[in-house]
Design brief:
Structural class: alpha+beta
Radius of gyration: 25 Å
CATH architecture of the domain at 6-220: 2-Layer Sandwich
Largest sheet: 12 strands, mixed
CATH topology of the domain at 6-220: PmbA/TldD fold
CATH class of the domain at 6-220: Alpha Beta
Distance between the termini: 56 Å
Strand content: 25-35%
Shape: globular
Number of helices: 6
Helix content: 10-25%
Number of strands: 23
């Protein structure tokens, strides 16, 4: 079926007509807008949750959200990238969000857009006035332009059509959650299904007009328990699909649930790892999680807002200062390509065709022969990188910022899994150690998104400070004598930063996918091989723990 002509789309027409009118906004002798952008997410979302075979909630949401952007001044200096005189305020005067009517009522839509634009224009001129005053009293060396030009893009795709048999999917979630009644050693469990469709619109004053859609489904299964010493242990399974019908069948999910329960049972009995310094093999999805946390954010070109007092540690954030320098072994190549929707049959959550600034997604060669050559960029330039490459991505109602989509990490000299394990054993033996460590999961810095299936044996509570990477979880001692493995727990990385990546001495020839969905950042995917570090330091976690429940859970007493 051919796409509807733009004139027949009420949302697109309302956006375009109000855009033309808004460009005439004028307040006394203050600046008029030089750039306006409207983006709309028209979303239908279903959420189902169950525990122990009983439905907890089943909801359907339909909403249209407007994300508007009004810029006054010029590309050289406008109301963006300004944190305020205090230096600790939010970015001011650029983006705002507002709900739109879900009915295709032309005048009602225009009215809502008009209200949002009027308020935002007033904020924009105030922010630019304050920013100019701030800059008159200060000198900022090599301050980049605030915004780059871009060619207009037009792409009108067919609206997304989706079906969702709510009763059938409620039964699906119930059946999966019911299995947890068999696992007496688990204290908590939940099965969550989120699915939906989204039509996205974008128009701007440069002439871009976009309408395209997407659908998706996420099945997330979580379980939690405690070790005898009170340490909280949890594991998580994530299944990402382009549509609900592509999620795995119940028997396949239950097979993974059994493995999850077995892993947690083993973790309960596992000893705590004492302090360790030596070779470490990051294997499977654990390697992809490690790279996402340590490298992905630093590969996104960011500029600090004028007036900001933020000082990021240069070894963990914003790698621009390392451009042209080696950050990985010479055998490593890293690129980002959001255009690919799958990798070896796995759906990639970071896939997209256009970013949130209306720029077509592009492949970007980031690291070539170990050297940092480029960064993923939005339309906010930095000192060295001055052009968008289709990676301006919005998180919630924030302004679009540079972020990775599908990050590929490759080595030209990959080893087989058996060869990597032998390299680990040989490295440990050379150091006079009885064992090396193999890590198959790394907890997210914010406390989520680890584990063999997306979760992991993570600890409860936060350490109260920013870390480069989260705790290593699903950690195994690999003994030099015979290669057998023993599970351990309760450890954390010490002194990890981007420079650590130069300690990699070998990499695998099999790549694993880690999809990062939720958590307040744009969806992303990291595809990475296992990597062997010559030396990492891990220390025992020292924290207070809660006592185990006084009596058993009801399902454990059956």
């Amino acid at each position: 079926m051919a796409a509807d002509p733009p004139a027949e789309d009420i949302v697109l027409k309302a956006l375009g007509d109000e855009l033309k009118r808004s460009l005439t906004l004028h307040l006394e002798d203050l600046d008029t807008p030089y750039f306006i952008q409207y983006a709309v997410d028209d979303t239908v979302t279903y959420r189902i949750e169950a525990t122990h075979g009983a439905l907890v909630s089943s909801d359907q949401d339909r909403f249209r959200m407007l994300y508007s952007q009004v810029r006054v001044g010029s590309h050289e200096l406008d109301n963006s990238n300004f944190a305020g005189r205090g230096g600790f305020g939010a970015r001011r005067g650029l983006s705002a969000s507002a709900e739109l009517p879900t009915d295709d009522d032309y005048l009602a839509l225009r009215h809502a857009i008009w209200l949002a634009t009027d308020a935002q224009y007033k904020d924009a001129v105030e922010a630019l006035t304050q920013k100019r005053a701030y800059l008159r009293d200060r000198t900022i060396e090599d301050r980049p332009r605030d915004f780059t030009q871009a060619d207009a893009v037009t792409a009108i795709k067919e609206r997304v059509k989706g079906s969702f048999d709510r009763a059938a999917w409620e039964d699906y979630v119930r059946r999966i959650s019911a299995r947890f009644g068999e696992f007496k050693h688990l204290q908590r469990s939940a099965v969550n299904l989120t699915a939906g469709t989204e039509d996205r619109y974008l128009v701007n004053s440069e002439g871009s007009r976009l309408r395209y859609g997407d659908s998706g489904a996420l099945l997330r299964i979580t379980a939690e328990t405690q070790a005898e010493d009170g340490q909280r242990l949890s594991d998580q399974l994530d299944y990402v699909a382009a549509k609900p019908e592509e999620l795995p069948a119940v028997p396949d999910v239950l097979a993974d649930v059994q493995k999850l329960a077995d892993r947690l049972a083993a973790a309960i009995k596992a000893p705590v790892l004492e302090d360790y310094t030596g070779p470490v093999l990051l294997d499977g999805v654990g390697s992809a999680q490690f790279f996402r946390q340590l490298l992905a954010r630093g590969l996104a070109g960011q500029v600090d807002p004028v007036g900001s007092q933020r000082r990021e540690a240069p070894s963990t954030e914003n790698l621009e200062s390392r451009a042209g320098k080696r950050i990985l072994p010479v055998t490593f190549q890293v690129y980002d390509d959001p255009r690919q929707d799958k990798f070896q049959g796995r759906v990639l959550a970071g896939h997209y065709l256009f970013d949130d600034e209306g720029i077509a997604a592009q492949r970007v060669e980031l690291v070539v022969d170990g050297k940092l050559e480029d960064m993923v960029m939005s339309r906010a330039p930095t000192k060295l990188f001055t052009k968008s490459n289709g990676h301006g991505r919005r998180s919630g109602g924030d302004s679009p910022r540079a972020a990775v989509g599908c990050l590929y990490i490759e080595s030209t000299k990959g080893l087989s899994p058996d060869e990597l394990k032998k390299e680990l054993i040989d490295a440990a033996d050379a150091e006079g150690l009885k064992y090396g460590l193999r890590i198959t999961a790394v907890q997210g810095r914010a406390g989520g998104g680890g584990g063999p299936g997306g979760g992991g044996f993570r600890r409860g509570g936060g350490a109260g400070f920013a870390r480069s990477v989260g705790d290593p979880i699903a950690v195994y001692k690999v003994f030099v004598a015979d290669g057998h493995e023993e599970l351990v727990r309760g450890c954390e990385f010490s002194s990890i930063d981007v420079r650590t990546l130069r300690r990699i001495i070998a990499a695998g020839n099999v790549q694993s996918v880690h999809n990062n969905v939720g958590g307040g950042s744009p969806a992303s995917s990291v595809i990475a091989p296992a990597v062997l570090f010559e030396e990492l330091e891990l220390t025992r976690i020292k924290q207070e723990t809660e006592k185990r429940p006084i009596i058993e859970a009801p399902h454990a007493r059956k």
